[in-house]
Amino acid sequence: ACLWLKVGVLLHLLLLFETADTCARRTAYNEALGKELSFSEKCIAKNPKSYWVWLYRRWITMKLEGSMNWTRELGLCEKLLDLDSRNFHCWNYRREVSKRAGHVFADDLLFTEKKIKQNFSNYSAWHQRSFLLPLVYTHASDLLAELLKELELVRSALYTEPADQSGWIYHRWLTGTILAHMKQVEQESCAQGLPSSPAEFLCEELAKQQELRDLEPDSKWVIVTCVYLRLLLLSVTGTDTDTSADRAAVAADLQRLSQLDPPHAQYYAFLQH
Amino acid sequence: PRSREQAGMQEDIAGDYDVLVVGTGLCESVLSGALARIGKKVLHVDKNDYYGASAVTPNFRALVRLLDEAAQQPELRAGFPAEGECPNLVSLAAVPRGFLRNVWMPPAPAAEPTEATAPVPVSAEPTVDSVSAPQPAAEPKVQQPEMQRPPFSPTDRQNRDYNVDVVPHMLFSAGPMVSLLATCGVARYIEFKALERCLAYVEEAGGLQEVPDSRNALFATSLLTLAEKRLLMKFLTTVQQHLQQEAEKEKEKEKERERKKEQKQQESSSEPAAAALTTVEAAKPLDPEANELFDEYLKQFHLTPKLLRIVLYSIALLPGGENSPVTKKEGLKAVAAYLKSMGRYNSTAFILPLYGTSEIPQAYCRQCAVYGGVYMLRTSATEIRRSDETAQWELLGMPKAPKSALEALNQSEGAPEVQKPVPEAIRAPWLVLPAHLAPLSMLKGAEPRLVERCVCVCDAALSPPLQSVFAVFPPSCTAFDNPCAVHLLQLGFATYAAPEGFFVYHLMTRSTEGARQALEKIVEHLFETSCALPTTAAKKPTLLWHCYFTYMDYVMPAEQPPRVSVLPEASCEIDYTEQLQLVEREFHRICGVAAEFLPAMPNPDDYIFVDVPEQQQQTPEPATTQSTEQVQESQPQPPSQ
Predict the structure, then answer these.
(1) Are residues B230 and A212, on separate chains, in Cβ contact within 8 Å?
(2) Which of helix, strand or coil describes residue B79?
(3) Which residues in B lie closer than 8 A to residue A161 (C-beta atoms)?
(4) d(CA B570, CA B552)
(5) Which residues of A are less than 8 Å from B227 in CB distance?
(6) Contact residues, chain A, for B226 at CB < 8 Å
(7) Is B506 in contact with B116 (CB distance < 8 Å)?
(8) How large is the average pLDDT for residues A236-250?
């Protein structure tokens, strides 16, 4: 706390420089900020998970707007993420820096891919992907095609380690987004190779999940995803089709889940309704 | 530590030793290091002027010389030569019993093209003769106009940069050799580099692929179907869990043993610790699963043939083929060794010594010398005889007249031999020698094991820019018809195995019917062997030179003749596990069960400088026994997974 009092004092002092418009004052101001930058770097190295240090660095970079070396910042982020690929402070900061540096989204996407290949148990990397994909593939049908490819990528993670949560969460986002975009694409011309209707897509996906379930019958996440997909299916199918089989399947699954995962029993009971 | 006079050429080597060690091969060197470390007086002799004995790492020309010598020896059948050897006599001057055999090298650049090369032992004619000597016009082997690649001949400087292992090895990053090197401190004499990649020949994928041996590798690989990924991952995690359970059980047993030992010591203070150890050992119940086969055990995982080949030959590194079936225990141990070592220094499980494998025996010899062992390279001693009266082994046959110091210096490149008149004999009650010098009677029960080898020199790597690569060809690949698994080790400048821009490839497989032909086919497949000008960009590395030979390893029985330790000169495993077990066993035979095998280095902070009246006492005495025990306890435990 004392440390940040000092920082507060410095901030205050620097605020005085805000109004400086003579050249000399400006250079002195920049120099001081430069020193602060390297100081904050040391702090980050020691305490990579402190909110304050990162905020402080953000503030410095905002003040040093014009003379910031953004490539170096990106490099710094990469190094820190190599040490700890799940440091969300660093990911946040990297998003900022990327924006300021005018970094191309496609390159960022490659970076996330690299991080996932290093270790796919990485929420932040998957999340960043979910953030970037719509930005890179702006056209709805392109995005849809890309999302379907992503589905196969995440499936590799799901099969390698069904107990790892990060893949499943990304998978959930993918199915939701795919459904949303399918509705959009229906209105435009339908590209080839894409599933013709949401229901068909969900059925296919369900079948694939069932394959994994055959290999790993006791994996909680597979069953949760099956339930989720079935619920989506039920919401998508019209009132004329017979849904009793699906409903029964959901009920049976929820029952199984309460056995496998007692801490979440109430959640499953809630889903029952 | 005994007080010795100044080190160096003035040392008096005559006298009584505790152990006489012949040959500076790996096993002998580790053993002599261990013996000297606990205070035994060791004399270590070798007739060569280099360390490593048969498992040496020569430069290129020295390798050619070695193979030439071996080729000119009379052809020896695998096994043992004729009788007529005295059981109490070891002849050092005799030709070692065919460690290297069946040598083939490209014919030397002959003046006359029709001259057939000298007695090259009969083996299948390799199809790559067109590389070297010019062919007579009558039987053109190459369709194109006569294009002769000049015979491979490195310059002096390049020659020095070659370090070609006769017996290549890698070290498991968390294996017994690495642990030993780290704890006993010998690691300071050697530098290592991590292996960069492990490949496997996957028939279905048509070539060498990265081995999917870890979670991340499995995720990224396109080699396996999704279901296969799940199955393999399941197998790896189950084995890890199983091994963790085993490790915990072992810890429990250790604690039990310690407690029982303490109890016994409290009960009767005079009872030696050794007896306590042996009684507890005897009480261990027989493992009911001892004979379960590894193949049977693997059936529960429903691994596809592709996965099975990966597990058996790329992870467990089994030789396959006609070799006796592997038990579940052995198989799991092999898998464990690999998994435990993965990721320790980099993503692979192995490290490589710089400058070749003969660095390791050399380092242990250095350890031995530091602790007072006496070394004699280029020994001119001719024989070792056991005298019936004193039951001691005597080193005989050294010249009486001393040579001048200048002459001795001019002759040797390595350590100059101490040529002093030896009025008294050099005696020791215990003899350690390599299997190739041992008389027949000492080799009762030893099984010979032959390894087929090939060394290739090329101008490019298999998958640049990687320099150190290991690849496995599983048994019975349809393209090569290899009866056993073939191991390929690519080494380059990164480990100083070759000059910059060149690469040395080592191929190894168990020697059986058809093994050499299989190696030839693999060489043909991997490298560009024809002289034709490459029409497209050369995809395969060009084969500049290669040779074939066989070396012989022995599996030594537990029962050895009294007061003698016969050690194998090499082994056919990729790491040093078997050899170290053997060395430790022999060490305890020599020094007793309670003796410590290469204990941890004493902490320099624990040295107590004692003021001793004698002026001889120049070296600091290590701390008293009590604090040494303390030191050994406080030493960081070697990392065990």
Answers:
(1) yes
(2) coil
(3) 215, 219, 233
(4) 8
(5) 159, 211, 215
(6) 155-156, 159, 211-212
(7) no
(8) 74
Among candidates A120, A211, A212 on the partner chain, residue whose Cβ is nearest the Cβ of B219: A120
- The pLDDT of residue B634 is 41
DSSP B23-68: --SHHHHHHHHHHHHTT--EEEE-SSSSSSGGG----HHHHHHHHH
**Residue range B568-622, pLDDT digits in tens:** 888 888 899 989 999 999 999 999 888 888 888 777 777 777 776 655 544 444 4
pTM: 0.78
Look up residue B327 and give its DSSP letter.
B
Whether residue B302 lies within 8 A of chain A, CB to CB, comes out as no
Q: Do B219 and A117 touch (CB under 8 A)?
A: yes
- Each residue's pLDDT tens digit, A20-63: 556 666 777 777 777 878 888 888 888 888 887 788 888 877 77
Provide DSSP, A117-129: HH-S--HHHHHHH
Token pair listed for B149: 């690649």
Specify the pLDDT at position A262: 83
Pick the residue from chain B with its C-alpha nearest to A159.
B230
In chain A, which residues have their Cβ closer than 8 Å to the Cβ of B301?
Answer: none
Which residues of chain A make contact with B230, given a CB cutoff of 8 A? 159-160, 162, 212, 215-216
Output phi, psi for A20, to 5 deg. Answer: -65, 135
Which of the residue ranges A26-35, B52-61, B170-179, B263-272 would you say has the lowest mean pLDDT?
Answer: B263-272
Kind of pairing between the strands at B100-104 and B486-491: unpaired
Contacts of B216 in chain A (CB under 8 A): 117-120
Residues 219 through 278 of chain B touching chain A, CB cutoff 8 Å: 219-220, 226-227, 229-231, 233
Smallest CA-to-CA distance from B223 within A121, A160, A111, A168 is with A160
Q: How many CA atoms lie within 13 Å of B280's alpha carbon, on the beta-carbon side?
A: 17
Q: Do A160 and B219 touch (CB under 8 A)?
A: yes
Residue A240: count other Cβ atoms within 10 Å of its Cβ: 6
A with B: how many residue pairs have Cβ under 8 Å apart? 36
Confidence of residue B127 (pLDDT cuts 50, 70, 90): very low
Q: Quick check: B219 and A162 CB within 8 A?
A: no
Q: Phi first, then psi: what are they for A4, rounded to 5°?
A: -80, -15
- A156 and B226 in contact by Cβ < 8 A? yes
How far is residue B404's CA from residue A203's CA, in Å, rounded to a whole number?
93
- CA dist B40 → A257, B29, B396, B448, B600 (Å): 67, 14, 21, 31, 17
Is B218 within 8 Å of A160 when comparing Cβ atoms?
yes
Cis amide leading into A48 (omega within 30):
no
For residue B115, what pLDDT is reported?
Answer: 36
**Dihedrals φ, ψ of B36, to 5°?**
-65, -35
- Interface list for B 196-225 with A (CB within 8 A): 215-216, 218-220
Find the mean pLDDT for residues B39-65.
89
Give the distance from CA A81 to its chain's centroid.
15
- Contact at CB, B216 and A119, closer than 8 angstroms: yes
Q: Do A117 and B220 touch (CB under 8 A)?
A: yes
Binning pLDDT at 50, 70 and 90, where does residue B627 land?
very low
Q: Are strands B89-91 and B383-386 parallel, antiparallel or unpaired?
A: antiparallel
Distances (CA, A) of A135 to A99, A106, A109, A131, A139: 12, 9, 10, 7, 9
Residue A235 has a pLDDT of 80
How many Cα atoms occupy the beta-carbon half-sphere of B75 within 13 Å?
Answer: 9
**Assigned token pair, B487:** 């191991």
Chain A residues with CB inside 8 Å of B233's CB? 159-161
Confidence at residue A1, expressed as pLDDT on a 0 to 100 scale: 47
What is the percent of chain B with per-residue pLDDT over 90, rounded to a whole number? Answer: 29
pLDDT (0 to 100) of residue B538: 54
Helix (H) or strand (E) holding A71: helix A70-83
